[in-house]
Amino acid sequence: ITREATHVNPSLPIVLSSLAHRNTNTKQVKMSVVGLDFGTQNAVIASAGRGGVDVILNGNSQRLNPCMVGFQDSRYMGEDAQSKSTSNYKNTVTCMKRLVGLSFTDPRAQKEMAMLPLTFVPSKNGGVAVEVSYSGLSGPEDDGDSKVAVPIEHVAGMMVQHMGEIASKAAGDGVAVSDWVVAVPGYYTDAQKRAFLSGCEVVGITNVLRLMHDHTATALAYGIFKDIKKEFDAEKPTNVMFLDMGYANYSATICTFVPGKLIVKSA
């Protein structure tokens, strides 16, 4: 792969899982790897293990999990945060994916923050933090309106942790997530990738094997199965355009396929 780019596809978490699957000690009760499609609006997770890959359903048998983290008397994530978002919209963080790793003064960050009903402040390192009322940090004598500034990458890490809990709960019997592969946008800079990994580390997720661009994962999802069916010709490369009509933006990439090889031509 010469370049990487961006796309969200229903099969993307499955491909992420299968790409990172590796042999583990079968005596250990652990999930070998999970693949996470961390979107702007929703997140989807899939697990690889025992020779198969499956998209994991949450407690309500849904594949899509709202990318929301709410703060009130406690932290609420996913569907729990969504159910309280109407009455707690000022303390429900969304679209964190588009702010991770950006400086508070960055024009892109300023544009995104202007569209959200939240109070943003600079973090200690000059990044973006969201100011929320979180009585869960205070004592019983508190009036319930304690303000705390939470860096946006930490909020993203909380959502990733929540997705891991969904995977562990679905597996049952105390099965823990061993490794992660996470899809990120093709426009993420190195600083944004590092910030995302930092947010994961804050919540105890230190075993992220790879951050893969969305479009690369989608192209691989297409190419792997086509290659198995011997549909590519070494003498006549196949050119395919992948279009991502996302929640917040859209993007396209053009890839060339030959047997056993993928080249991202344009993104």
Task: Report on the architecture of this protein.
26% of the residues lie in helices and 30% in strands. It contains six helices and 17 strands. The protein has helices at residues 12-20, 79-84, 107-113, 152-171, 190-202, 214-228, and strands at residues 30-31, 33-38, 42-49, 52-55, 65-66, 69-71, 75-77, 92-93, 119-122, 128-133, 147-151, 176-177, 180-184, 208-213, 238-245, 250-258, 261-266. Strands 2, 3, 4, 5, 13 and 14 form a six-stranded mixed sheet that branches. The protein has a three-stranded antiparallel sheet with strand order 7-6-8. Strands 9-10-11 form a three-stranded antiparallel sheet. Residues 1-8 and 19-28 have low confidence and may be disordered.
How are the SSEs ordered, and which strands pair?
Layout: H1 12-20, E1 30-31, E2 33-38, E3 42-49, E4 52-55, E5 65-66, E6 69-71, E7 75-77, H2 79-84, E8 92-93, H3 107-113, E9 119-122, E10 128-133, E11 147-151, H4 152-171, E12 176-177, E13 180-184, H5 190-202, E14 208-213, H6 214-228, E15 238-245, E16 250-258, E17 261-266
Parallel strand pairs: 1-12, 2-13, 13-14
Antiparallel strand pairs: 2-3, 3-4, 3-5, 6-7, 6-8, 9-10, 10-11, 15-16, 16-17
